[in-house]
Amino acid sequence: MTGFVSTLATIWRLALPYFRSDDRWPGRALLAAVVAIELTVVAITVLLNTWNARFFNALQDRNWDSFVAELLYFCVLAAAFIGLRVYQLYLNQWLQIRWRRWMTAGYLGHWLGDGNHYRMQLLGDAADNPDQRIADDIRMFIELTLLMGIGLLGAAVSFLSFVVILWSLSTGPVILFGIDWAIPGYLVWVAVIYSVLGTWLTHLIGRPLIRLNFNQQRYEADFRFNLVRMRENSEQVALLAGEAAERRRLLDRFNAVVDNWFAIMSRQKRLTFFTNGFNQVSTVFPFVVMSPAYFAGQIQLGGLTQTASAFGTVQAALSFFVDAYVRFAEWRAVIERLDGFEAATVAAREVATAQPAITLAPREGASAVRLANLAVDLPQGTPLVAADGIAIMPHAHVLVTGTSGAGKSTLFRAIAGIWPFGSGVVEAPADKRVMALPQRPYLPIGSLAAAVSYPAAPGTFAPERIRELLAAVGLPRLAHRLAEDAHWNRMLSLGEQQRLGVVRAILHAPDFLLLDEATASLDEPSEAVLYWLIQERLPSATLVSIGHRSTLRAFHARHFTLERDGDRHRLREVELAAAAP
Question: What is the residue-averaged pLDDT of the chain?
């Protein structure tokens, strides 16, 4: 019961925000229409129950006129029933897509907002495969919430409607073993006992499906993610002749899918045995209960069929979870995954503000980037880099060197404001823009012009200017392909991608440009050309570079190095002319 209440609270927390959002009135209107149709359908079912008695009595009495009238009455009710069900489905799907659009936008905002997606990965990505949770779990949550919610409402209203009918049909004595027993509402009690027993046994048999469905979604997403990763790194796999290793690795992932699927099959087989047997018995059970009274002449055929119909409706309403348990298990798994995703986004957001943390402090009127008592840690708390009293002055280009693993790239991430782990302050001018160029630039799938302009919107920069810069960085052959859509990270070499990164930096014209080995895949003459081009086209920008080549020193006025000092690497300035290669 505690778990059930907790699940209801989670559903309420996940679902309620939409119906309080800016799209709440269309959403509420669609939900109200779907609910109203469900209630109307229940009312028609009640009318069909009373029709059932009249129709079969007409057959038993061989009353032709009554028979024809009841057929016409049935046609009217059937037509209304069909029309209502059609439009209930249509309005339900309309509500689903509006709700999904709102939830998807919200979850994308939580995931992508302020670098949250990056911190989630740094924390271990407890919410595995966020792409699957946003693309599939939101859709399934909305579909199943409406399916189970409307179904449960219909079952509850059907129960309340038909229990009155069934009670009224249970006024006579029940005949058991040839003895008349006066049990008020005995048919209701039989239906309740039968349904509660069936629901309890269904839960005992099907409960493991909740965890199995949760794992199945995770294994499927993990397998799909590794297929995509293989495709994106196909060149490296081909160069290493790693196809056999990749095949083994992918089959290992798929074997987890298969093993869990067999576990689901085994559990569903047991559950299906029980639920189908339960439903088959339910077909004849009310006739068995009422047959002594019928054969004793206490009720007519119409009364028998009406009682059986009412009994079946009450029993079906009480046994709602027997029929819907597999769906219920899927629903619980989806709820847990969305709840876990929300918890992971909140945890990642809190990391950025929890103390101690690295604070990015914009300062009005400042001209330099200053590092004060900066202590950069790994996510697990391991000390990494220390920097204090460091000022990066405008136009005084800085070169940062150090041994591999000393924390140079992590220091850049802290300066860029995306690494919260540690303590201290990174003070930056409030009106100045900082841009970082990593060793492997990100080029989104789409047109070349859009990839180079990223993160600005396509069309922000004139095509003529982009073509001129492509020629300036040594890529004139791409000038005529600006409108071509492609996966540029796969089509171009890393050196060509780094040239495009320089084009992007020049287009965006930042005040502080952090180059994290952003030209390391180029030869030294080509690297020199790009640095001269950056300094020529961005005369007001301050360059902060990570690099190992001695030739980079010619483009920088200051040199900082990371040296081991106790449990951290400390950033200190050295004489540029005296620095070792």
Answer: 88
Domain 2-351 has CATH 3.30.70.20: no
Q: How confident is the model at residue 541 (pLDDT cuts 50, 70, 90)?
A: very high
Cα separation, 275 vs 322, in Å, equals: 6
Topology of domain 359-574 in CATH is Rossmann fold (3.40.50)
Residues 6+ apart with CB under 8 A from 5: none
More confident residue, 277 or 457: 457
pLDDT tens-digit series, residues 318-369? 777 766 777 887 888 889 889 989 998 988 888 877 878 899 899 888 889 9
Phi, psi of 403 (to 5 degrees): -70, 160
pLDDT at 2: 62
**Region of residue 78 (left: phi > 0; alpha: psi -120 to 50; beta: else):** alpha
Quote the pTM value: 0.77
Gap between the Cα atoms of 208 and 214, Å rounded = 10
Q: Pairing relation of β-strands 390-392 and 369-377? A: antiparallel
Are 13 and 4 in contact by the 8 Å Cβ rule? The answer is: no
- CA–CA distance, 10 with 331 (Å, rounded to integer): 12
Q: Where are the alpha helices (DSSP H) in 64-185?
A: 64-112, 116-122, 130-132, 138-168
The token pair at 324 is 């819907």
Give kind and range of the element (H or E) at residue 386.
strand 383-387
Give me the mean pLDDT over the 217-224 stretch.
85
Report domain extents, the chain.
2-351, 359-574
Q: Please tell me what DSSP assigns to residue 136.
A: I
CA distance 417 to 357: 11
